[in-house]
What does this fold into?
Amino acid sequence: MDDVLDLVRRTRELKGWVKSKPEDTDLRKAYIAEVSKLGSSEKLPPKICRFGIFGASTALSFLASPTAGAVAGLALSAVDYFLLDSLASRDGPSGHWNR
It folds into this structure.
């Protein structure tokens, strides 16, 4: 049942996106432009910064203790992947269908 409710919610988001476009907009072109657009978190400089910050933190943890480094690396990777990527997601059809 949760899947159906999630699908209804996503459909409402997509309908809202369509309604936000002017009537004379070619929705097919607008959709393709929106889906192919890279978000700011998907561009190279932010990814390099995130990699550097989390890599340096993991390396420093390994200096303290290999076990602590492994645990810290796993925890930081999870934070980066699950938390930061979800916070950086964007609205529109690309964010809508790629969730």
Notes: The chain is about 80% helix and 0% strand. The chain has one domain: 2-97. Residues 2-97 form one domain.
